[in-house]
């Protein structure tokens, strides 16, 4: 077995079974954020970069990079209206988050992810009303509620955590919930 070069310690906590809607949404989003990091724990740089399910360009490191940009998009660009350029993709490389991992530095990318999550979590705190409307200016103009953003983020993480589970199992046989 390859000795891990990079360790992620997520501190994953189970969401509560009952509580106010906002508490549950925050808890489930944080659970899924931690799950992604948990799936990446104790792997080498090479394993994090490895595209374990050909012909897909998806890797665990690519998923972390992708979710950093997804966080940035929904909380900073859409909810806050910030001019926050993409982190890992561009017009030239629209799938750069997944395709450009061969020379990526996992420590740097995980720090970027953590910073983006921290910023987005703080933005969420500054917007307590789940019925607040934000404007998405992509493929037309769409009004979305903060509630919708939370539900979409949970769905996005859940889907990609399923991918992460399969990628991890292909890398070292480790499975889990």
Would you mind describing this structure in some detail?
The structure is a single chain. With 177 residues, the protein is mainly α. The chain contains 6 helices and 2 strands, in the order αααααββα. The chain starts with 20 loop residues before the first helix and ends in a 5-residue tail after the last helix. The mean pLDDT is 93.
Which descriptors would you attach to this protein?
177 residues, 2 strands, 6 helices, two-stranded antiparallel sheet
Q: Which structural class best describes the helix and strand composition? A: mainly alpha
* Element order: H for helix, E for strand: HHHHHEEH
Task: Count all strands and give the number.
Answer: 2
In spatial order, strands of the major sheet run 1-2
Biggest sheet layout: 2 strands, antiparallel
Overall pLDDT metric: 93
Q: Are there runs of 5+ residues with pLDDT below 50, and where?
A: none
Output the radius of gyration: 16 Å
Give the terminus-to-terminus CA distance: 22 Å
Tell me the overall shape: globular
Summarize the structure.
With 177 residues, the chain is mainly α.
Layout of helices and strands:
Blueprint: H1 21-40, H2 45-49, H3 60-79, H4 96-99, H5 106-126, E1 133-137, E2 141-145, H6 146-172
Antiparallel strand pairs: 1-2
Helix pairs in contact: 1-3, 1-6, 3-5, 3-6
């Amino acid at each position: 077995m390859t000795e891990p070069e990079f360790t992620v310690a997520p501190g994953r906590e189970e969401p509560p079974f009952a509580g106010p809607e906002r508490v549950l949404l925050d808890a489930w989003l944080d659970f899924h954020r931690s799950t992604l990091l948990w799936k990446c724990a104790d792997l080498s740089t090479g394993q994090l970069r490895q595209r374990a399910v050909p012909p897909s360009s998806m890797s665990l490191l690519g998923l972390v990079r992708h979710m950093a940009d997804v966080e940035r998009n929904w909380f900073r660009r859409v909810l806050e209206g910030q001019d926050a350029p993409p982190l890992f993709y561009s017009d030239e490389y629209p799938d750069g988050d997944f395709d450009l991992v061969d020379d990526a530095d996992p420590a740097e990318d995980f720090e970027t992810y953590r910073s983006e999550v921290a910023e987005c979590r703080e933005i969420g705190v500054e917007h307590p009303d789940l019925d607040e409307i934000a404007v998405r200016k992509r493929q037309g103009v769409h009004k979305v509620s903060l509630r919708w953003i939370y539900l979409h983020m949970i769905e996005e993480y859940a889907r990609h955590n399923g991918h992460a589970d399969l990628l991890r199992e292909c890398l070292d046989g480790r499975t889990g919930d």
